[in-house]
Amino acid sequence: MDIYFTNTLTKKKEKFYPIDKNEVKIYSCGPTVYKDATIGNLRTNIFQDVLRRVLKYNGYKVKQVMNITDVGHLVSDGDEGEDKMVKSAKEEHKSPQEIANHYTKLFFEDLEKLNVETPEIICKATDYIKEMLEYVEELMEKGYAYETSTAIYFDVSKLDEYGILSGINLKEQKSGARVEVDPEKKNPYDFALWIKAPENHLMKWDSPWGKSYPGWHIECSAMSRKHLGEEFDIHTGGIDLIPTHHENEIAQSKGATGKIPARYWIHGEYLLVDGGKMSKSLGNVYLLKDIIEKGYDPLVYRLFCYTSSYRIKLNFTWDAIDATSKSLERLRMGYKAHQQGEEKLDATDQEKISKIEENFHKAINDDMNMPLALSYVWELIKYPKKSKEIAKLLQKIDKVLAIKIDENPKSKPQEDIPEEIAKLAEERKIAKQNKEWEKADKIREEIKEKGYIIKDTKEGIIIEKE
Ligand code: AMP
Ligand code: ZN
Description:
binds adenosine monophosphate; 3 domains; 14 helices; Rossmann fold; four-stranded antiparallel sheet; five-stranded parallel sheet
């Protein structure tokens, strides 16, 4: 089945053709590990995880590379301010490495709780200083970079085009539109590839330009080329990365290899909180642990992310989380009813079920349309006949959803229903269908005497140990 993605590069929804017909290569910009990941950051990780799961559902192997930025990401995108790692290290009275280790560990713990698969390759910027340095030297040799007294800059005027992702037209930009920091910069959009370290700077390495450290953008170009080659399939990140970070990655690649590194650029929209930006000053910066501390399963947040397309802003409210928590419970109860079901599906049922699966598949392949895909999951959950075959299909579908649909609903104890009880439940159901109410009640009593209770819910019959 064809897959479609909205490509920021062409601004169109396009059919996906991988370079290699079996394996899809993805580069995802990872976190700068100087602080806790917010639920906003994690929304981006969830969308990236859905992407790889959708590709796998379609039979592809995936090779995903994600970087961990532990150096070079300055406080401002305009090459201004301190390195975020160094700033955080000073504030927390720790070394940048301690800060990086601490927040990297927390980040991966969050991903695990959200059932986000670990990318095949995780690369830490400070482990690739040599590759980055070689990349900058290459750009220097090819005439795309120049040295000033403070840094090595990329010269955007050397490219036939700069700004292809965000649609900046350099000719139309008034010079000085961006605040100038370094008067030695030749063009306002030139950006730092390598930065000369001031005295006492905490992270610095030897280079042809003295003690210095990499800029943020070069790490992704160097590491993606090293692991995925000069051209790979998909590059992902949050929407905020389009105008600077990804634009600059493209510039670097075009300078070094003459190519745009990825064919498809897929960006996730922002999570809003109470309709606005998350900010420390408003006290509405939420972490996954805040959701867990309120007693919610962390996968409620994952399911909540499916209530809108990854390309649309999503508004976080506690009411929405509460409603989603109930939905997750109902999905798991519905799954359980199928898993305990003994009904046989006839040819008509089979046809209906495969149509629902096809619709689900089409929805996920249509630019990861998760809200639509979920509507088909509900159709399966609510399917009037309760059958293990449907439970099996739901398990397959959960390879994409990753909400652990087969986990026991919170309110239900964990146990397997003995065959004897399942049989009685089936007899009771038939009695009810035949309107033999007395018989149905008697069987319910019998089930009760054997230590089980039977409940009729919207999703079907649930049997629990008393
Ligand atoms: P930051 O911690 O601000 O450097 O963000 C790390 C990554 O998470 C960025 O690349 C963003 O794309 C993404 N991100 C940050 N805030 C949000 C948000 N509110 N919603 C979705 N993604 C976000
Ligand atoms: Zn990046």
